[in-house]
Amino acid sequence: MKVETINLNNLTMNDIQKQQHRVKVILLNSKDEVLLCRRNGVYNFIGGHIENGEGPLECAQREVREETGITIRLGNFNSPFYKLQCFEKNYYNLGLNYFTTIQFLDGRTDAQVDLSKRQLDENESKQIFTLEYIPYSKLRSTLEDNREIARGEKREFIIDEMLKVLDEYDEYKKQSINYERGSDEER
Question: When you count CB atoms within 10 A of the terminal residue's CB, does the N or C end of the chain come out lower?
Fold first, then answer.
């Protein structure tokens, strides 16, 4: 798994008052479409905070169920391919320095969204929270088209993050294919 650290203010762990750990999922179906959520019009990968006792796969499974109503076996997820670590000074103007980690992984399912089984948290319930399938081949342009809305919501960084993650995901897939080819050639 590739790990990248962003620390624009040169904070140390001694400067951190709060830590949070998250998982975000690139959830694909057999048509190569990605299921995204839209929060107040801004696209996001499905995901959320890792709870006590959870690993990243269990968190992904729970978050997909809570946000989409889809129940997925753990075996439908791959291990995280990318981890972003951020030292954030005065996080959202709360007066606290945060250390945030986000592990990104992919999963596959053709199960249908079931809004009757969705369990949005209190914050999500207060937002306009919708789900949408986007063809992977059109995902980058869709995100760029969403940039103005994200800017208006002061969430443009989400678009930049998602585009970066897609670059990492494409590289991860290339390496996986090359690894599989190498394994076949050795046989």
Answer: C
